[in-house]
Design goal:
It is built from 10 helices and 12 strands. It has 328 residues and is α+β, with helices and mostly antiparallel strands. It has 3 domains: 96 residues, PAS domain (Beta-Lactamase, 2-Layer Sandwich); 71 residues, Signal transduction histidine kinase, dimerisation/phosphotransfer (DHp) domain (Helix Hairpins), CATH 1.10.287; 148 residues, Heat Shock Protein 90 (2-Layer Sandwich). Bound molecules: adenosine-5'-triphosphate (ATP) and magnesium ion (MG).
Length: 328
């Protein structure tokens, strides 16, 4: 133990060891220097010698639920992450200073938001100029060029729009409305949008949501979430395939499922598909259009509603995306 204590006193992270009677048996210099832990901690209950209430409640929650837990907290001018690992004999709390990381994240977000914002107007101008030229052009060959250019501009417009949505959702700046959203009508509206695309691919769309399944949320955001899931379910389907949307209530959440009979996602890619710009087969995905931001938007919308999204998929058989939204 003394070797372990010596090692822990020299690392660049904070460590707090608590025994099964809730007494602190060790806390390192990191915690004392930063004013998180009082100097006379030895043998005292952890809640008496910590100077931060969020830390106390995070550790207390982890211990009472007997489950390891991750929290974030502010102390003086710094931001920390706190991971509490609950073992049978010992609870270990690890503190990492994430101030720099957060600052970096904030400036990255601001940079992306500023660039996207600045690009919005020129893209809109370009689009309307090209549309005018396209309408006035009579030569077929030129019309085809202009059509291609218009498609590229539209891709650019969508990319910028998606980036702006993600940065707003990530920063927590975006206000999430709490209105009553009927999931059957929401699905019907999304399907209406995709009917032409589904028809071209001979994919049938099935709205299996029962009447009266309602959730408190932001209609526009949930529309965007479902739009992205249904878009993928059609885009990565096969000819003659189906897309089914279901919803049901389960304990304290509402579950929304989008199931397709498409190409599926290889197991090794599943942990990454909700990351920005991640695409399973970049070359094939590029042919199909899009940028790889869709599922990241889905994840952020679910999170901003206090929910989450999960995926199950079998290569060659299809995929099911499940969104859990809390009822209250
Ligand atoms: N239902 C699905 N079936 C098979 N693969 C999928 C499905 N949904 C997503 N994927 C895979 O996950 C990747 C990421 O999806 P995402 O929606 O984020 O991006 P995208 O569809 O490629 O582009 P965008 O949504 O921006 O138009 C896709 O490129 C695709 O490879
Ligand atoms: Mg997509």
């Amino acid at each position: 133990m003394s070797l372990l204590k010596e090692f822990l006193s020299q690392v660049g992270e904070g460590y707090l060891l608590i025994d099964k009677d809730n007494r602190v048996i060790f806390g390192n210099e990191f915690l004392i220097k930063r004013g998180i832990l009082k100097t006379d901690f030895e043998g005292r209950p952890y809640y008496e010698c910590l100077n931060n209430l969020t830390v106390v409640s995070c550790i207390a929650e982890a211990i009472s639920e007997k489950k390891s837990k991750l929290c974030h907290f502010h102390h003086e001018d710094s931001e920390y992450s706190l991971y509490t690992f609950v073992g049978t004999e010992l609870t270990v709390a690890r503190f990492s200073d994430i101030t720099e990381l957060k600052r970096y994240e904030r400036s990255r977000r601001e940079f992306v938001a500023n660039v996207s914002h600045e690009l919005k107007t020129p893209i809109a101008v370009l689009k309307s100029l090209l549309e005018t030229l396209y309408e006035e052009e009579e030569r077929e060959e030129r019309k085809a060029f202009l059509e291609k250019a218009l498609k590229r501009v539209e891709d650019m417009r969508r990319l910028v729009e998606d980036l702006l949505i993600i940065t707003k959702l990530e920063s927590g700046e975006e206000r999430i409305k709490r209105e009553e959203v009927d999931l059957r009508s929401l699905t019907a509206e999304v399907f209406e949008l995709f009917e032409p695309k589904a028809n071209t691919m001979s994919v049938s769309l099935k709205n299996l949501v029962q009447e009266d399944i309602k959730v408190k949320g932001d209609w526009d955001k949930l529309f965007l979430l479902l739009k992205n899931l249904v878009d993928n379910a059609i885009k990565y389907n096969r000819e003659g395939g189906t897309v089914e949307v279901k919803a049901y209530l389960n304990n304290d959440s509402c579950v929304l499922e989008v199931h397709d009979t498409g190409i599926g996602i290889p197991k090794e890619h599943l942990p990454f598909i909700f990351e920005r710009f991640y695409r399973v087969e970049p070359s094939r995905s590029r042919e199909m259009g899009g940028t790889g931001l869709g599922l990241s938007i889905v994840k952020h919308i679910a999170l901003s509603h206090g929910g989450r999204v999960e995926v199950k998929s079998k290569e060659g058989k299809g995929s099911t995306f499940t969104v859990y939204l809390p009822l209250e």
